[in-house]
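Protein modeling request. Please complete all fields; requests missing the sequence field cannot be processed.
Requester role: graduate student
Desired output: 3D structure, token encoding
Chains: 1
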Amino acid sequence: MISSASKHVLLFLLGVVASIVLLSLAQTFITTPAKQLVETNKTKLVWGVQIGSFDHPGGFNYIRSKLDEDGYRLFETPVLIADKTYYRVWIGEFTDQEQALKASQYLSEHYLIYGFVTEILHVD
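Delivered output (124 residues):
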């Protein structure tokens, strides 16, 4: 028989694994259509660090001024998913993946913000 504490630990670990799988799938879903759009429109892909997704605009304003002081620009992109608008918040625009990875590491060390590096569609 499994104890109650063990059940909680197992549920937590299952949630972590599910989150990792969903983030991986989301990143694949996000970047593939963007690469196709680059070919048809006058756009380009840049690197960024997605640091949140909210169901209302301005969801990350409380840390915007501190990130500005450190030289990071915060962007918010509305995305329609299942008839609901979400606002993805990311910093960037970095010209290469290495710069974005360094920024992601800095954010995790100094702000405990654990984002993920992804290519982002930039429209001129």
